[in-house]
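Translate sequence into structure tokens.
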Amino acid sequence: MKKKTLFGLIMIFILIGSLLPSVNVHADTTWNLVWSDEFNGSRINTSNWAFDTGTGSGGWGNNELEYYTNRPENARIENGNLLIEARKEAYGGMGYTSARMKTKELRQFTYGRIEARMKLPKGQGIWPAFWMLGSNIDQVGWPKCGELDIMENVNNGSNIYGTIHWDKSGHQYYTGQSNTIDVTQYHVYSVEWNASSIKWFVDGVKYWEANITINDTEEFHRPFFILLNLAVGGQWPGSPDGTTQFPAKMYVDYVRVYQQGGTTPSTQAATPTFNLASGTYDSVQNVSISTATPGATIRYTIDGSEPNENSAQYTTPINVTSTKTIKAKAFKAGLASSLTAVATYTIRSGGGIGNLPSTTWYLFNQKVAGVNTISENMQTGKSSVSGWQPIKAISATQNVWTTPVTNGTYRNGNWNFTLWTNNPGGTSNVKVDLLKVNADGSGGVLLGSKIINVSATGGGNHPTIYSYNLNSVSLNNQRLMVKVTKTSGADAVMCYNTNDFSTRLVTP
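Result follows.
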């Protein structure tokens, strides 16, 4: 990217030796993927990329005319591409803005096949680049750090330039150019870099090569980081003119780094993992999901359905406030989708977390399997039977009802019972016990108990309304249970779900 009037200097073939390009020599196919950014997320991955901002020193050493920003107006993810956009606008004392991104202090590489699939803008004064700098630049400066330009294009040109810069008693460089291509279409630009040479390719066809075993080129045997930028103006391309179209946009489909001896990439995306194991927790949890496949997109569901490429995309931790089953799957172009990862989280009640849904639970005459023969389940709707039926005789035998097995909190609220006697001349004393029990009915914990006098007030059937205020109750795969038993007097009758009788648990 650093140029000193590229064509104003004599290319130093004599320093390099006989290095004329070999036409139609294809890239080595033995490289193994070690890192990539596929730009499939919703935002730029800051674990891979940082931004250079401002105007640098002397227009980044090239008299460039743009102000580099980290704004989404200048760099963003769009339709699975990194988009770097140069704009004509007044900003920071300059007349143009753009973006310059780097993997410095995040990702660095010594040797390998480094490539990007890109679509470039054209126009007078436009200078897109995909390049590398030595990671020791802050210690030794440029050009002693070394520079490797994988792809540069200027103005309306139809050739790609590949260049190395280094120090040998001052700045030296060696450059070559590709055959003519349409740079406004996607092409793969790459280098193959080993201990002996650097080779440049467009779409897998080599067009240039440099020997890095001679002429004090030790810079190219140390770690380098990657840069992507779209410059405006500078001493190589010159300034934009009236024909230059803005905004100018550079699209990057992916950046990939391969090395020989690296791990062979799988044909299937790696199954996502959760930062939190399935289980029961006492408070709200934030669940993170990751995959070992670089550049893969994670899709997830929380409704029990199988994730697909149209499911919600994971970008930030999922806030789990109640019982949830999360299913996640990783997707990446060119790979089979991953296996489905599944995790179930139960949040115990307490601290206001995981309240039972606000509703009214009515008592139905329905047996509950696994509890006992006299238990009946409370449901959330009234019976369709009209009139005074169904009814339940309250005798000396225990009459038991339970809620469904529940995880959550029943907040302070009322149990309301409508009891009456059809013996106007007598009374019924009825005991009501409120308990928390295990799913199978065992392990009862008494929450409250009261004797109710169901008395007659006149002819016919006479109801007695009973309310019991229940404090907050935490349930962990447990049930709430009510036991109603006659203690003395005549049998009573409970009307438990018809008409407007209020034998019910109201969940606030």
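Note: The helical segments are 13-16, 59-63, 137-140.
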